[in-house]
Prior knowledge:
The chain is built from 2 helices and no strands. The protein is mostly helical. The chain has helices at 22-36, 42-48. It is elongated, with a radius of gyration of 14 Å. The relative contact order is 0.13.
Amino acid sequence: xxxxxxxxxxxxxxxxxxxxxxxxxxxxxxxxxxxxxxxxxxxxxxxxx
Length: 49
């Protein structure tokens, strides 16, 4: 499980993460997943292009 601390500036008045920043968090999760399982890290995927 990946935990991310959300900055105050990325939330709206109802303490919900602004929708435009959600993709950044998804990308962080994808990179973390790739580092956890060998062979699918960011560098390997970039080299495969």
